[in-house]
Recover the amino acids of this structure.
């Protein structure tokens, strides 16, 4: 009996969501296949800000492989990354928003904030490395 790849995709997506503590309504698995490689951008949706942000990107030989790479990442990302708080607002909005990112450095945290949007659409007021607890 052949394994149903869609069931495997769904299982991996659910397991990834469980590891990071977000349900299917808060995650978008965005696949892009170029040649023999498939890139996966895992996007988080924030209903409070009504915005989406990049969680992490992986590459694999196909969708299942890219999801397995993402699962490997989410199992250990807290040990390999630092926590950042970014205060920002969208152009034309007077309210200050606060978002939290896990990243290797400040530039990666900002890349996650600006992912898939016009960089002039957001004003960043502060980026802070959070203390290790």
């Amino acid at each position: 009996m052949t394994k149903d790849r869609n069931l495997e995709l769904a299982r991996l997506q659910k397991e990834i969501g469980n590891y990071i503590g977000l349900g299917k309504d808060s995650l978008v698995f965005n696949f892009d296949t170029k040649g023999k490689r498939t890139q996966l951008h895992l996007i988080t949706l924030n209903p409070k800000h009504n915005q989406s942000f990049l969680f992490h990107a992986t590459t694999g030989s196909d969708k299942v492989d890219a999801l397995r790479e993402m699962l490997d990442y989410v199992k250990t990302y807290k040990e390999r990354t630092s926590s950042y708080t970014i205060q920002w607002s969208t152009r034309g909005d007077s309210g200050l928003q606060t978002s939290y990112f896990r990243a290797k450095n400040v530039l990666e945290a900002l890349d996650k904030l600006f992912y898939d949007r016009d960089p002039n659409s957001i004003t960043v007021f502060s980026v802070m490395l959070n203390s290790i607890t």
